[in-house]
Automatic annotation (TrEMBL):
Residue ranges of domain ABC transporter in the record: 2-219
Name of the protein this chain belongs to: ATP-binding cassette domain-containing protein
Species of the source: Stagnihabitans tardus
Domain of life: Bacteria
GO molecular function: ATP binding; ATP hydrolysis activity
Length: 219
């Protein structure tokens, strides 16, 4: 479970204070995947980072009682001067998992050949995102955090393999996806929320959330 209790978060910007959350309270429970709709620049990444524990609230409490992933696409835990092999063996140890298994899984899934034994800093953007996604799928979390949908890989073989594993994983796991596009959420979640004026408005269905989101766009 992830629970926000009276959480406030804002940033000082040149244009004034940017409020992301204003004493917001909500909860995401296991088995109830949630899509969050928010316009660009309103705080999608900040909320996902707070759920992951990468960003702290100014006030209030964020409670995390499950195994929660790093946000898909987040490379902060990967050291660029080390190879994918070294990175994934090290990360396996942090999570108390078998380094041989994690290495073999990532090597097989990301399909980057000899680059797997070269520094991550030398990878193309596509290779980096494939390695990041493979690592996330190798680790098995209760809740997966996804910022703006899936990484865009042009590698058809990778997309097929990773997509199949993710679909299987999501049978058991919970996913939280933030996006400015309702279409991105359709694939993952039935229930949805809208981030607006520092509050998260939760709805039973994506349809209901879309009504508020579309209404906002018109007004
Ligand atoms: N560390 C920071 N310092 C100052 N302002 C910040 C900081 N991080 C984010 N912001 C501002 O807070 C607002 C929300 O940022 P955030 O990246 O969470 O939004 P987003 O909805 O994910 O944006 P986008 O859709 O453009 O990716 C933006 O106006 C951004 O400029």
């Amino acid at each position: 479970m992830i629970e926000f209790e009276n959480v406030s978060k804002s940033f000082a910007t040149k244009a004034g204070r940017k409020v992301i959350l204003d004493r917001a309270s909500f909860r995401v429970t296991l088995g109830n995947s949630l899509g969050i709709l928010a316009r660009n620049g309103t705080g999608k990444t900040t909320i996902i980072n707070m759920m992951a524990g990468l960003e702290k609230p100014d006030e209030g409490v964020v409670r995390r009682t499950s195994r929660i992933s790093f946000p898909l696409g987040f490379m902060g835990g990967v050291i660029p001067k080390h190879t994918a092999k070294e990175n994934c063996r090290y990360i396996a140890q942090l999570y108390a998992l078998d380094p041989d298994y994690i290495e073999a899984f990532c090597r097989w899934l990301c399909g980057i050949g000899a680059y797997f034994d070269m520094p991550v800093g030398t990878y193309s953007q596509g290779m980096k995102s494939r390695f990041n996604f493979a690592l996330m799928l190798a680790l098995e979390f209760d809740i997966y955090l996804i910022d703006e949908g899936m990484p865009s890989s042009t590698d058809v073989e990778f997309n097929k393999k990773a997509g199949a594993i993710l679909r299987d994983r999501l049978q058991k796991a919970t996913v939280i996806v933030v996006s400015h596009q309702p279409k991105t959420l359709e694939k993952f979640c039935r229930s949805a929320a809208v981030l607006k004026n520092g509050q998260l408005y939760q709805f039973e269905t994506l349809e209901e959330a879309k009504q508020l989101y579309d209404y906002e766009a018109q007004s």
